[in-house]
Amino acid sequence: xxxxxxxxxxxxxxxxxxxxxxxxxxxxxxxxxxxxxxxxxxxxxxxxxxxxxxxxxxxxxxxxxxxxxxxxxxxxxxxxxxxxxxxxxxxxxxxxxxxxxxxxxxxxxxxxxxxxxxxxxxxxxxxxxxxxxxxxxxxxxxxxxxxxxxxxxxxxxxxxxxxxxxxxxxxxxxxxxxxxxxxxxxxxxxxxxxxxxxxxxxxxxxxxxxxxxxxxxxxxxxxxxxxxxxxxxxxxxxxxxxxxxxxxxxxxxxxxxxxxxxxxxxxxxxxxxxxxxxxxxxxxxxxxxxxxxxxxxxxxxxxxxxxxxxxxxxxxxxxxxxxxxxxxxxxxxxxxxxxxxxxxxxxxxxxxxxxxxxxxxxxxxxxxxxxxxxxxxxxxxxxxxxxxxxxxxxxxxxxxxxxxxxxxxxxxxxxxxxxxxxxxxxxxxxxxxxxxxxxxxxxxxxxxxxxxxxxxxxxxxxxxxxxxxxxxxxxxxx
Length: 478
Description:
Blueprint: E1 4-6, E2 10-12, E3 15-18, E4 28-34, E5 38-48, E6 51-56, E7 68-76, E8 78-81, E9 89-90, E10 107-110, E11 121-122, E12 127-128, H1 133-136, E13 141-142, E14 149-151, H2 157-167, E15 179-189, H3 191-203, E16 210-216, H4 221-240, E17 244-251, H5 253-266, H6 280-288, E18 293-294, E19 300-308, H7 317-325, E20 328-332, H8 334-338, E21 345-352, H9 368-392, H10 399-416, H11 426-437, H12 450-456, E22 460-462, E23 468-470
């Protein structure tokens, strides 16, 4: 028989304190009856003797010390999961908000997930194609990887996230039995941004294989803390029980961390860096580490967390701690965005640490790694040439440095820049890369194997129509 507790001892922001509690457990879900008509859910986040601190998901508006009844459920936060959730839209705690009726759930699962034995993990291989050259070509996303996007306020990370959802696939060498789906979670977004995502998914025809969890900016802050966990619970079910390949996009993890800071402050905890709680690292890790592949299961969970860096500061605690946990990052650049380059991916600070293990002969193409290395090296040389030109003037540069200036301009305009609806396959990306490398003398291409150069390298130039064309043999540069 369940016991109901009448009244509360105190209310502070999204937190309610209940005294005289017996048999309560940390992280246990409670059901709260407000004024005899409103039903709300809460989560016990602290226990001290007979006192329990409760996070109220729907907020404490309208709650008073004497008009609330509280009942312990005896279990942690759970959500229903099933394949029928694909094509549907939910709020931050997994309740449908798309007016399409209830969902038939296969089972209820704890949103905190089950601990994954590290021994059972399988090393990530193969890649997920996003159709975006700067990601597929130079910071390739590998199945089972966690690859965050570091952005800034005002940069087009929402458009980039929507494009990835529209275009993402398992690539050209996917098996016949490989099913692919996307779980999308948005935290603390404005109504117009939420409508943009919904409209984009519907208009592009991809909504049937997307499950969206939307937490709006005016939704309770506590719900924001559950949203990524609810999304990952569904992703794990689809990947490890239904053996699907799932791409999880989480935006914006900065909103999640700021919600943590607000709740921590309400609890009176001692703050750490920038006012965030000292357990920010472990909370982020508990989310990011839910990506991966399990042995003997033909499924995977891949994550793309998106976070906005306050004041574009990559040393801020949120991107700083994220970088320790994840396997690389894709950094968006404000200067490129000001030049109307979309997506404004800053190549030099971006990297994918697992890229080398999921590309090449058996996955993409034999020349992929060499092309990526040479493009990265050549673009680094461009930055040196630009810095020198700003000091001594472009006319005083050597002929080689002038070639690199041309290469840098064309690289940004032809390789990094692409239309928001342009879906390039990996062969198109590599083809553009070779055309650009053709602008550079072969003697400068020291990051590519000689056999690869012999097979793919063709000297190029830019004609009067601003097209890159092959140089005639008579005029070929050595």
